[in-house]
């Protein structure tokens, strides 16, 4: 088994199988969306013909939804999986968020939570798509003032309750919409069915991955993650590599990889954030060039799947730094041109 090749193929970073960004997000089940501008490239990088217009269309139509969910952080999920994800992941995410609130000495009584949630919901329902500034104004009109940090917790809890979700895609600012107006209601899955569906999509799109990878990424309890794997039965099997047990599905992609390819990977991309076993693609001595101990992830360059440098997504010219002397700036020009063409056309 070549785990790097398998991850590139199954993460759709080489030989992508999809044209539509909504299909990518559905396949990946959830994608980190911490950086509002670069989450679009994370999705489009996994399509055959990257198009910001296609992403915006899918986002504005509500086929792709952005919200706080797993591990209490920003995620993109497909509308078809939205309610399943809320039911499965929100309870743990809410508990994590309440822990953060407690550590920051913020206490929000239930009465306040419900009152503010009603105001936020009415505001986004009236406006259709509202920015945080719109929400601040709506609260001020009712003589309610609160600091941005406290308001952020209110918004986050409203997202995880299934009340608010992403609104219209703007160039720089996140917006919010009423979930009931954006995401169609779906038949409720029982918990085991949801857990099996969630687990299958994770391993199908991230394989090879370990149990520890799945626990880290999902934010679920170890027992839930073990049960999810058990529910997959004989459609998943273990392959041992350098003393670690990796799970593979029977339809694992292993063909279609060609050597000599550079990838300009955005910050917080699933290629790194999906795993605890990042050392497979990221040499440990270069870890801090890719992410720090506080969970800040940087834009990175991969050559044949191995992380080898950093790049600057928002510069007008190609600015890269390699960890070693094996490469020159010229070597990534083709990849930079593809990204720059995507960016220029869709500004």
Give the SSE map.
Layout: H1 3-10, H2 21-28, E1 31-32, H3 38-44, H4 52-60, E2 64-68, E3 74-78, H5 79-103, H6 110-127, E4 130-131, H7 132-140, H8 148-160, E5 164-166, E6 175-178, H9 179-182, H10 191-206, H11 211-218, H12 222-231, E7 236-241, E8 244-249, E9 262-265, H13 270-273, H14 287-290, E10 300-303, E11 306-311, E12 320-322, H15 333-345
Antiparallel strand pairs: 1-3, 2-3, 4-6, 5-6, 7-8, 9-10, 10-11, 11-12
Helix pairs in contact: 5-8, 5-10, 6-7, 6-8, 10-12
Word description of this protein:
The structure is a single chain. The chain is α+β, with helices and mostly antiparallel strands and 347 residues long. It has three domains: 3-182, no CATH class; 202-249, Arc Repressor Mutant, subunit A; 262-345, no CATH class. It is built from 15 helices and twelve strands. The chain has helices at 3-10, 21-28, 38-44, 52-60, 79-103, 110-127, 132-140, 148-160, 179-182, 191-206, 211-218, 222-231, 270-273, 287-290, 333-345, and strands at 31-32, 64-68, 74-78, 130-131, 164-166, 175-178, 236-241, 244-249, 262-265, 300-303, 306-311, 320-322. It has a four-stranded antiparallel β-sheet. It starts with a helix and ends with a helix. 40% of the residues are buried. The model has no long low-confidence stretch (mean pLDDT 94).
